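Usage example:
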Amino acid sequence: MSVMALLRPTTIRNVAEDQFVVIHPLDDVREEKVDTASLGRMSMTRSAKISLMALRGYLVLMMLLVLYHVIDLSGALNRSVH
Amino acid sequence: MLEETIVATGTDIEMAAVRGRIVRSKWARNALTFLVVFGPGLIVMEADNDAGAVSTYVQAGAQYGTKLLWLLLLLLPVTYFIQEMVVRLGIATGKGHATMIYQRFGKWWGLFSLIDLQLVNFLTLTEFAAIALALGHMNIAPKVGVPVAAAGLMFMVLTGSYRRWEHITVFLCLLDTAWLFIAFKLRPANWGGVFHDTFVAGLPAGGVTTSLVFLMVAIVGTTIAPWQLFFQQSCVADKRLRFADLKWSRLDTFLGAVFTIVVAGCMMIAGNAANVHGLAFSDPAQLARDLQPFAGEAVRSGLLLLMINAAVLGTTAISLSSAWAYGEVKGWPHSLEMPVSKAKGFYATYVVCVALAAAIVLIPGAPLQLIIIGVQVLAGIMLPSAIIFLQLLLNDKQVLGEEYVNKPWNNWVNWTIIIVLFILSLILAAQVVVPNLFPAS
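Running the assembly step on the lines above writes:
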């Protein structure tokens, strides 16, 4: 039996006591998960907030640096090459 | 869950009808459960061996032989630890990474990560450029081959079946086992050297140079990419993996990581052949042509086809990560299980990502190299911060509870990874500002 045939589900109505049923997650009843929408924003310490603000500044700076470098490489800035 | 619906009647148990498979032993149950869970881990890892990765690993082999194989081995646990966190988060929440950042860190970070993902996902340009190159070496005009490849990429996703897409993609991943045969065919005479370079870290002759630092940063950036976080979490959520599937999903991710690193090592060994024969090449397609006199037609064709396969895998995974992220953030229906008519925005995002990259590659004189360099540098700089958010989310007890939240050793490992990645990204940034930071050769 091929792997694909092995994975193909069939409809099961009864099963012997010494048998096991394997159900694909997509065929199974939807599992209840954490309701993250109702949790709102993560509570953070003051230092964590400051760290994230610093990270925000670092990332914006780095993005501008990369942008500048790409524009420079394209020759748009017309800097002389030595 | 199942136990609640079953009713015992003698030796048989009558139950509400379910779709599944009956097996007779615990061993068979475990094996089959692994097989049904298997997929996202292998795909996210192997899709990362995309066209850009082929180019990087082959280049590393050509320049430094097998001297950097240890770096790949070092990256194996790193890539596993990062993706394992994504799996836990995906299974616990049933939601994608973009949703989690929006909900837990607010709109600014949500939007930033989405834009970042979009920019970095321009990497698909590399994939289509590689397809055009490989097809060119097979005497197929890119104007014909690239649109056909793009159409194929769209078709494999638009079927309205997650399982169909997963089966096709896993099959494509497993085609990469051909790299083992290519590495065997191009194997160096000294296998002991390969073994030594894999398990003993060392620098190539010449020491620390600009090109070595760039290549090492490129290898790290190629092996761990921001889109992988978004992709696997969304994939796990779309597949609706259950809490009980966690151990099998971890195994899937671990085996995927091992397979990917082995394949990457084979790519380096293939590049080493160029080093041995003194071949200079600008891309893997050219290497395939130049190796033909030494290795035969099978290796040439194999390398070209594997290059296309790598590009196809990279494109479908990267574009899907965008489509899922947009779907989550915009509140559109976003599942591969849905027909196109019910998830138009999700599929449209995927189609636009694929079509745009294919179209840009076909524009004569488009500054592809410039865009690719910019995107790769950006990806390297953004990666550590993306992992910081992952790390914060994995310490979020409100979301994960005591059972799934990071353990102290997880945090030690992950913060070490983040610090190393930050140092590498700073080196990258420093090299952009001060190009002569390290000796040229």
